[in-house]
């Protein structure tokens, strides 16, 4: 998820009535740009009694303290009473952002101090990010930990955009991934094997040791298979060892 790193809250310097709102959400504003005008309660009271000249006094301007974009706007209409310290708006720099990855706790150790992680956007664009910091807190329900990454390149993204983070835990150059249906097991699931077809078309039962599993693939750690090996994917469970088969 995309999160803006630095946010500046514009607060009301006094209690009073909003007389002008000069911005909207999404506006780019410059430092010292006029955002609001606030009329004090005393000035408003004098104005209501039609005292002469009261319109010239008691109007307090509120300026943008930094440059950026209006991210939130809590006051959108005039004639609203606010108290001193009330948040009026939030200004952000949408290029100063971080990527929040909600990682299962058992994977968080692989993310800390990581120099590269791929961030895939909903439009399939892939960006690269580097580890920033992790939060020493685990969500009690999902058991995930928040890990933050900074993009390596300056990119403008909308806040709260959901993205997909991809990283490698371990690289193995000699292991083979097989479809899950090709890896067979017994009822207690403590033994696993595959049916490998020999050059003379016999299906041989080969015990295997599994590694990492994905949605549809299983890594075979042992024995070392060759990419040219022919493995029965479907229909191999009831085959006796050393059965003559015909491959389609």
Quick tags:
conserved putative lor/sdh protein from methanococcus maripaludis s2 fold, OB fold (Dihydrolipoamide Acetyltransferase, E2P), 248 residues, mainly beta, five-stranded antiparallel beta sheet
What would you note in describing this structure?
This protein is mainly beta. Helices cover 6% and strands 45% of the residues. The chain has three domains: 7-92, OB fold (Dihydrolipoamide Acetyltransferase, E2P); 97-166; 176-244, conserved putative lor/sdh protein from methanococcus maripaludis s2 fold, CATH 2.40.420. It contains two helices and 22 strands. The strands form five sheets. It has a six-stranded antiparallel sheet. The longest helix has 8 residues, at 41-48. The protein is rod-shaped, with a radius of gyration of 32 Å.
Task: Explain briefly what this protein structure is.
The protein is mainly beta and 248 residues long.
Topology:
Elements: E1 2-4, E2 7-11, E3 16-21, E4 28-29, E5 34-40, H1 41-48, E6 59-63, E7 68-73, E8 81-82, E9 87-92, E10 97-104, H2 105-111, E11 117-120, E12 126-138, E13 144-151, E14 164-166, E15 176-179, E16 184-185, E17 192-197, E18 202-207, E19 209-213, E20 217-222, E21 230-231, E22 243-244
Antiparallel strand pairs: 1-10, 2-9, 3-5, 3-8, 4-7, 5-6, 7-9, 10-13, 11-12, 11-14, 12-13, 15-20, 16-17, 17-18, 17-21, 18-22, 19-20
């Amino acid at each position: 998820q995309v999160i803006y790193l630095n946010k500046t809250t514009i607060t009301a310097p006094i209690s009073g009535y909003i007389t002008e709102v000069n911005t909207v959400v999404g506006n780019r504003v410059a430092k010292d740009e006029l955002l609001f005008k606030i009329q004090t309660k005393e000035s408003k009271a004098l104005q209501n009694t039609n005292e002469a000249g009261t319109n010239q006094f008691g109007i307090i301007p509120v300026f943008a303290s930094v440059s950026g974009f209006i991210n939130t706007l809590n006051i959108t209409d005039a004639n609203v009473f606010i108290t001193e310290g009330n948040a009026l708006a939030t200004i952000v720099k949408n290029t100063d952002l971080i990527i929040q990855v909600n990682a299962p706790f058992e994977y968080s150790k692989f993310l800390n101090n990581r120099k590269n992680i791929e961030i895939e956007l909903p439009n399939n664009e892939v960006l690269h990010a580097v580890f920033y910091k992790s939060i020493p807190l685990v969500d009690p329900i999902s058991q995930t930990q928040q890990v933050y990454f900074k993009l390596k390149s300056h990119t403008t993204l909308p806040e709260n955009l959901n993205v997909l983070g991809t990283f490698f835990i371990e690289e193995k150059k000699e292991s083979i991934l097989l479809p899950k249906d090709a890896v067979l097991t017994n009822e207690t699931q403590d033994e696993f094997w595959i049916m490998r077809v020999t050059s003379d078309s016999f299906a041989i039962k080969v015990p295997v040791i599994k590694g990492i599993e994905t949605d549809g693939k299983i890594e075979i750690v042992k024995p070392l298979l060759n990419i040219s090996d022919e493995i029965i994917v479907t229909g191999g469970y009831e085959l006796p060892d050393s059965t003559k088969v015909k491959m389609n």
